[in-house]
């Protein structure tokens, strides 16, 4: 590893820790500050923080790897994500920001569910917190796995050491600075990812076009008929499965918590424009990295440099490392270090957001709700920090011996949240007749449908091998919410008054 590359990475780590220290002094005085930044985020930080925490290591590793192998037949996942993110900004964001404040200033999703439906039984809080903790621990494990893979492939460091180093830095600034530090680091990390996903495909294209090729796209097409044909080998269920990734946005706590923290509902218009522009350009860059990477390998596999990246036959050993390979071969070591920092940025931004949301549930929805109702803010912030450390330790333990590729791990957790919370959140914001028992039924049915689809084999293979588990999970949860809500007692006048207040405020801010 070149000295210049190490210097770039060291500067990146120092900057992240510095932001953590800044967040410590700015917004960790009470639990609301530590977990939600006092609802003071501006539109730019909200947009890039949501985007960076959304697009984890799979943006620079999993997605380019998928396009490297399968070409544009994977484009449907990007289309689904873009549609889902846009609808999330329009349908969920303004109402959730308004309603969580009206509903007794809820600072976590379980908090909101309990307050929205006046659930004295606390069942909604308990079940939703359990779902968050289980799926986010798995999601965080996928993130630290990506960090270990990066250090193993790029630096030659043992996978376990790379995993622990990644988790250690993230835990440090998350534990110290809380939500504000996480959001600010996400903003910086989002900018780094954006630049990297522009630089790498452009550099690869220029090298290919300067190597005497009459047409770079012709070179790509020559690799396989699938590379430029989005319909090659596609089936109806396959396309639906990829598009269905967009359904997950409505139920991702680490993304929608940014909507709860924005300073004003009126800021969402600017946030949406920034966030969607960032996302579309970044996704295009990730796709082209995989496509041009395949062409580069076909033309220059003998010149790929470090043999650690290649098999004995000269092929790329792990397709998910194509961004790493190109960044180290096409750029000066100092710039290459910056590009490797982009991968770390993608990984760390998501891990930190997941750690904080899980910590919020452990602190607000277990510790305070069931163990220490009269706990002081100082005690709760301390409990939140301890929870960050606990979840990180469990995630690292789960990732020591990974058995799935990155995209599969992320996909399972994404589907779990999408089915458990997506229909629940949308209907709770738009349907006045929804009841707490309908909410509970939807959450439970959505969760178990996803788990059944992933783990129960039918004819020797899990159902998820035919249709992405998000689809049946969302459908089943929606049906359960509607049916059970219709079968149970209508919401009280007090609950309806809060709903009407939310409606009125949203309409007023929209004018």
UniProtKB/TrEMBL annotation:
Swiss-Prot/TrEMBL keywords: Amino-acid transport, Cell inner membrane, Cell membrane, Ion transport, Membrane, Sodium, Sodium transport, Symport, Transmembrane, Transmembrane helix, Transport
Keyword Cell membrane among record annotations: yes
Give the stretches traversing the membrane: 7-25, 65-87, 126-147, 159-180, 192-211, 231-257, 278-302, 380-400, 412-431, 438-460, 466-484
Specify the superkingdom. Answer: Bacteria
What is the annotated localization of this protein?
Cell inner membrane; Cell membrane
Question: Biological process (GO) annotations?
Answer: proline transport
Q: Which reaction(s) are listed as its catalytic activity?
A: L-proline(in) + Na(+)(in) = L-proline(out) + Na(+)(out)
A cellular component term from Gene Ontology for this protein is: plasma membrane
Membrane topology per record: Multi-pass membrane protein
InterPro entries for this protein: Na/Glc_symporter_sf, Na/Pro_symporter, Na/solute_symporter, Na/solute_symporter_CS, Sodium:Solute_Symporter
Does the keyword field hold Membrane?
A: yes
Q: Which CDD domains match?
A: SLC5sbd_PutP (cd11475)
GO MF annotations for this entry?
L-proline transmembrane transporter activity; proline:sodium symporter activity; sodium ion binding
The record's comment on protein family reads: Belongs to the sodium:solute symporter (SSF) (TC 2.A.21) family.
Its biological function? Catalyzes the sodium-dependent uptake of extracellular L-proline.
Q: What is this protein called?
A: Sodium/proline symporter
């Amino acid at each position: 590893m070149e000295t210049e590359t190490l210097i770039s990475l060291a500067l990146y780590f120092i900057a992240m820790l510095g932001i953590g220290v800044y967040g410590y002094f700015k917004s960790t005085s009470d639990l609301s500050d530590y977990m939600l930044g006092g609802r003071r985020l501006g539109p730019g930080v909200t947009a890039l923080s949501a985007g960076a925490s959304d697009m984890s290591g799979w943006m620079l590793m999993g997605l380019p790897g998928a396009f490297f192998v399968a070409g544009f037949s994977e484009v449907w996942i990007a289309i689904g994500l873009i549609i889902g993110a846009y609808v999330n900004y329009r349908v969920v964001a303004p109402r959730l920001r308004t309603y969580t404040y009206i509903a007794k200033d809820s600072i976590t999703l379980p908090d909101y569910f309990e307050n929205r439906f006046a659930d004295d039984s606390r069942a909604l809080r308990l079940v939703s917190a359990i779902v968050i903790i289980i799926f986010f621990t798995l999601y965080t494990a996928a993130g630290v796995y990506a960090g270990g893979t990066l250090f193993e492939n790029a630096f030659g460091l043992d996978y376990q050491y790379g995993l622990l180093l990644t988790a250690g830095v993230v835990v440090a600034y998350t534990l110290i600075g809380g939500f504000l530090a996480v959001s600010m680091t996400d903003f910086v990390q989002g900018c780094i990812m954006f630049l990297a996903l522009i630089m790498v495909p452009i550099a690869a294209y220029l090298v290919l076009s300067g190597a005497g090729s009459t047409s770079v796209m012709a070179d790509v097409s020559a690799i396989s008929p699938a590379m430029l044909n989005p319909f090659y080998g596609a089936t109806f269920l396959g396309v639906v499965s990829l598009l269905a990734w967009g359904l997950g946005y409505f139920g991702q706590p680490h993304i929608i918590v940014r909507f709860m923290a924005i300073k004003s509902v009126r800021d969402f218009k600017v946030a949406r424009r920034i966030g969607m522009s960032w996302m579309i350009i970044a996704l295009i860059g990730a796709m082209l990295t995989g496509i041009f990477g395949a062409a580069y390998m076909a033309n220059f596999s003998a010149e790929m440099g470090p043999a650690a990246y290649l098999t004995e036959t000269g092929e790329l050993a792990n397709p998910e490392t194509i961004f790493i390979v190109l960044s180290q071969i096409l750029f000066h070591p100092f710039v290459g270090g910056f590009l490797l920092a982009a991968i770390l940025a993608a990984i760390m931004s998501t891990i930190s957001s997941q750690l904080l949301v899980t910590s919020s549930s452990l602190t607000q929805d277990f510790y305070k709700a069931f163990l220490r109702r009269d706990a002081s803010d100082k005690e709760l912030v301390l409990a939140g920090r301890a929870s960050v450390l606990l979840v990180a330790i469990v995630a690292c333990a789960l990732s020591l011996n990974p058995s799935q590729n990155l995209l599969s791990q992320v996909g399972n957790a994404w589907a779990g949240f999408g089915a458990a919370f997506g229909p629940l959140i949308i209907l709770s914001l738009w349907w006045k007749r929804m009841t707490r028992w309908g909410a509970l039924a939807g959450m439970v049915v959505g969760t178990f449908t996803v788990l059944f689809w992933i783990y129960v084999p039918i004819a020797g293979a899990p159902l998820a091998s035919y249709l992405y588990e998000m689809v049946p999970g969302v459908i089943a949860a929606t049906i359960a919410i509607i049916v059970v809500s219709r079968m149970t007692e209508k919401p009280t006048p007090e609950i309806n008054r809060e709903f009407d207040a939310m409606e009125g405020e949203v309409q007023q801010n929209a004018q």
